[in-house]
């Protein structure tokens, strides 16, 4: 296989579905699903996913740049790797999703929607992770990096979203995220339907959703803006030097979620509101009929505000920064 991205965009299966070179063996499992296994012993199993949202193209281009020298036998491979392009039909259409947001359907939530392509794709991706990690040795480290770009601009250009995890995060994982240029980490305190929550909850993987910049169409990405993430991924895959950490990411935790429940939902934020915009205590954030959302802590920061989501889905998260003094508002 010469070009994994172009093969996926073609919508056809490759004529040759497995092969090897001096450093690795590769196998095409399914549309947008590729396994690479090094010929040298390894203690790390790494899942790299992108295009869970089809309009987020820069991470796809970065992954393809990293894969090409591996498949050509020009670079060594250190970990076992499963590469996933999550939603190929949406990627081909240049849309976030076609019918349902794929990143709300994991951990079996695909069973709650009408049977269709995205429900079946969520199941197929869950099965792929199970198959990949069932082959893990007892001493293998499991990491899952889900690469995204955000709809909105942000006060933190690059940040990571960490799923609920009952275990402490590994120090080397947090250090890698800092080396990848992440300026902030957001820690969930409740389960969710994301791909990274699925891998963390069901397979004990150290997982993170990496938001690496602004979502743009193919051909419009300035990949130089992703150099830290590219270099950090090259260090994982090839053993190249990990970028130096100049500043540790700021840590935030989710304080509350804004959910759209009906067509009466109104989000009191403009389209230009950036991720991590701060709001003072008492600010009315949104209303949905008789339900109103206010800032409850002394200061809260918004993440992923989106009034256009389907009913029942998250229309935004409100965060507090760890270390800031908080005092909840009595409503």
Key words describing this protein structure:
331 residues, alpha/beta, 7 helices, succinylglutamate desuccinylase activity, Aste_AspA_hybrid_dom, Succinylglutamate desuccinylase, hydrolase, arginine metabolism
Detailed description of the structure:
Keywords: Arginine metabolism, Hydrolase, Metal-binding, Zinc. Pfam families: AstE_AspA_cat, AstE_AspA_hybrid. With 331 residues, this protein is an alpha/beta fold. Helix content is 23%, strand content 28%. The mean pLDDT is 92.
Question: Secondary structure elements and their pairing?
Answer:
Elements: H1 4-10, E1 18-20, E2 24-30, E3 33-38, E4 44-50, H2 58-71, E5 80-85, H3 88-93, H4 117-134, E6 141-150, E7 159-162, H5 171-179, E8 184-187, H6 195-203, E9 206-214, H7 227-238, E10 250-259, E11 265-267, E12 278-280, E13 284-288, E14 291-294, E15 299-303, E16 314-321
Parallel strand pairs: 4-5, 4-6, 6-9, 7-8, 8-10
Antiparallel strand pairs: 1-2, 2-3, 3-5, 7-9, 10-16, 11-13, 12-15, 13-14, 15-16
Helix pairs in contact: 4-6
